[in-house]
Amino acid sequence: MTTQTSPQRLKESIQDWAAELGFTEARVTDTDLSAYEAGFERWLEDGCAGTMGFFQRHGLMRFHPEELVPGTRRVLMVTRDYLPPESLGPSKVLGEPALGYVSRYALGRDYHKLVRKRLAQLAQRISESVGPFTYRAFCDSAPVYETGLAERAGVGWKGKHSLVLNRSGGSWFFLGALFLDIDLPVDEPVQPHCGSCTACLDVCPTGAIVADGVVDARRCISYLTIESHDDIPESLRPLMGNRIYGCDDCQLVCPWNRFARKTNDTDFHARQGLEAPDLVELFGWDEPTFLARTEGSAIRRIGWRRWRRNLAVALGNLPTGHPRIPAALAALQGGLGEAGDQVDRHIHWALARLAR
């Protein structure tokens, strides 16, 4: 790389270009994540990763950006707001058992590709200014410890719910990382500002936040509905309510999210009516309908069978006397034998619950 621009001036230009591309934060850190390794190893030893074997397979690679992409000297961490404007807010959806709750990050288009695409565009702008250089863009797509990098870069701090919190934007944003072989000035970390607040720990429906910043995936609704291929433990099913894809409770109660920004990016606005969908109607989707309605969405990755598994649990959680119970019973009975033994086990559980 050849350039006559000072590192500080180049960094300022990169931040300006990042803002033009829709990123809210753009801050720089080095590659030293050694302080996070011991905590991660304890988390694995305690079994908190559940069945997510990729954590063990990748080992400590996520804490060594310079090994994942040889030559990396700096990491540019960016944020992109995703909280969509809605006619019916999250708390109201959670309060109506006949509606399905989808984590707000998944209402729009799949963020993985969108954020990486914008980061690639940013890298092109840098290249036009300084010449060819080595880079690689990530967004929840490789063994990269984005939370630690965001902390090191001063984007925010790791909240007690384990998500990155920003004083001016809360936590409703995606993180992206651009690995660079350019030697840019680094930013300073910020101090944590959770204080004595335990709102996220107290509200977690399944008690998955087992310590400050530590989530036991085996109890986490996001893990159970998205990552896990197994049967959902019967003891946890009643606690899931109407959450069918992910869970936002810890974010909804966080005081810092009073400052969260609604996204102007239409790619992250709700699609296919999933901001407040009727559970019975969703359960009626056959596999072709599911694939068509979730095209371009992060939801598609769980597949139709796990989608139906989750819906069966939510339907089984309809409270006694709810007017949608007759329709739910008919839908569940009609769905037996359509999506495999695992789904049938969850349907039978739901039918038994509703019969009581």
TrEMBL record:
Domain 4Fe-4S ferredoxin-type as annotated: residue spans: 182-214
Binding site for cob(II)alamin: 62, 140, 164, 175, 222, 247-248
Family annotation (Gene3D superfamilies): 3.30.70.20
Domain of life: Bacteria
Catalytic activity line of the entry: epoxyqueuosine(34) in tRNA + AH2 = queuosine(34) in tRNA + A + H2O
Extent of the signal sequence: none
Catalytic EC class: oxidoreductase
Residues binding [4Fe-4S] cluster 1: 194, 197, 200, 254
Entry-linked InterPro entries: 4Fe4S_Fe-S-bd, 4Fe4S_Fe_S_CS, QueG, QueG_DUF1730
UniProt cofactor(s): cob(II)alamin; [4Fe-4S] cluster
UniProt-annotated location(s): Cytoplasm
One Pfam family named in its UniProt record: QueG_DUF1730
Known EC number: 1.17.99.6
Primary location: cytoplasm
Quaternary structure, from the entry: Monomer.
NCBIfam families from the UniProt entry: tRNA epoxyqueuosine(34) reductase QueG
HAMAP family reported for this sequence: QueG
Name of the protein in its database record: Epoxyqueuosine reductase
Species of origin: Guyparkeria halophila
